[in-house]
Amino acid sequence: MKKIKSLLGALLILILWQIPPVFGGESTYESPGDVVAGPRAWLVPAGEILLVNGALGAANYYIGSRSWAQIGTASIIENFELGFDWDPDGFPCNTLDHPYHGAVFFGAARSVGYSFSESLLFSTLGSLQWEFFMETEQPSTNDFIMTSLGGAFLGEILFRTSVEFLRPRQGKSISAWGHIAGFLTSPPLWVNSRLYKNKITFHKEPSPFEYLALGAGLGNAQSRGEPDVRYNPLLFAEARYNRTREGRSVLAYDYFTVRAELEQIKTGDILKRIESNGILAGSSKPLFGADRSLFGLFASYDYMEGLWYDRFSDVGIGPGMLLEYENARQRVAFYSGIYAIFGAASARYALIYGDTPYEEKDETYNFGSELKNGAYYMGPGIMSRFELNYKRGIFSARAALRQFWVHSVHATDANEWGFLIPFSVSIRPAPFLVSFEYELIHRDSFYDDYHPLHNDAYTMKMYTGFTF
What we know:
Layout: H1 2-22, E1 36-37, H2 43-63, H3 73-82, H4 91-110, H5 116-133, H6 141-166, H7 176-185, H8 187-195, E2 201-202, E3 209-223, E4 229-242, E5 255-264, E6 270-283, E7 292-304, E8 312-326, E9 330-346, H9 348-353, H10 356-360, E10 376-392, E11 395-407, E12 414-427, E13 432-447, E14 453-467
Antiparallel strand pairs: 1-2, 3-4, 3-14, 4-5, 5-6, 6-7, 7-8, 8-9, 9-10, 10-11, 11-12, 12-13, 13-14
C-alpha cells in the first residue's frame, strides 16, 4: 500500500510541476524534435476529454442502463468523502479498457502540440474526472493508475503510429486507407488534424518505422493436466520504431517496439495480447563498441490473455539498454531491462479453490472473482526482460526471457511469479514473412501457508504475412 501511495504522490508532483507551462495560455512552443507541433491551446484537449467522458457516461446511462452511471450531486460528494478504494471489475476492463480510455485523453493533448509529460497530465486529470464525477462507485485506485500511466504508455504508441498514417508526403495526398488507419489508431489526432489543419504540422523526416509486419496464422497451446487448445486462427501486427540519432536528445518513445495479437479459441472467445516497450529518457551515445546503442529509462505496457491461468498485465518503468551490432552480412541486437511494475496476474488459488482460502483468513476479496475464470491479483511487483535477435539475409531468429512477480494488494502474502521464454525463427523474402514460434510458460503461485501451485504450458504458432 505504501508503494501505491508513493506512486500516486509522484503523479501529484507531476501535475503540480506541469500546471504552469500547460495552462499558461495558447502558444506555439514545440519540444525540440517532436513529431507534431500545434497550437497548444489547453481548452481543446480539456473540452474533448469532457466530451468523451460525457458521451461515454450518457451511453452507459441511457443505452446500457448501468446503475453506476446514475450520477448526481450526492454521488459526487460521497466520492470525495470516501476517497480511493480498489475496483474488482474484470481483467479486460481494468487492464485494457482503462488504458485505452486514458490513451484517448492523452492523444487529445498530444495532437495539439503538447509534449509526452504534459499530455500525461491530461490523461491523469481525465482519469480523476471520471473516477470522482462519472461513477456512483467509489473512486478506483487501480483504474486511476491504469488510465493515467497505462493511457500514456499505450497512447504514445498509438499517437506516433497515427502520425505516420496522417502526415502528408511531398506530392502525395493521404489515401482513404490512411485516413481510416489514422482514425483507428488515434481518433483525437485525426479529428484535430482536420479541425486545426493550418495550425498542426507533422515532422518531415523519413518514416521512423524500421520494421512493420501484418499477417495471420494458426496457434495451439497445451497445459499440464489440461486439454489441448488447437488450431486457433489468429491475426497479428508488430513494429519497431526508431527516431533516435546520435548527438540528438532522446524524447519519450523515440524508440519503441510493439506487438499485438488476436486469437480466437474454440469457445468463440478472442484472446488479446499486447506487448510494448519504449524509452522514456536516455542517451543514444555509442556503448560497448556497438554500431547503435540506446540506454536509459524505459516504460512497459503489456496485456496478455493466454490459457485459463495465464493472464498477465503491467505498467512499468525501469532502466534498460539496447545494443546493435551490424555489418553487410548480419545484424545482432540485444536488449535487457528491469522494471518496477503495477501489475495483474491470474489468481490460481481463487480459480481452483474459489473463495475458501480468503474466507479462512477473513479475506473475501480477489479481483474479478465474480467472473468465470476471472479471478486475478493486482498490485506492485517486478518484471525483467531479455531479448536477443539475429538476422542474416532473409533469415532471422529471436530468443527472449520475461520474468514477472506480482504481489496482491489485498490477499495476505499472495504472490504470482512466472516466466515466459519465446523462441521464433522467420524467413523474410520481402515483402513476405513466414514465422514459427514456440513459447514456454511457467507459473508459480504462493499464498500464505497454502501448498504452492506450479504449472508449465507451451504454445506453438505459425504465422504468415507481409512486411513493410
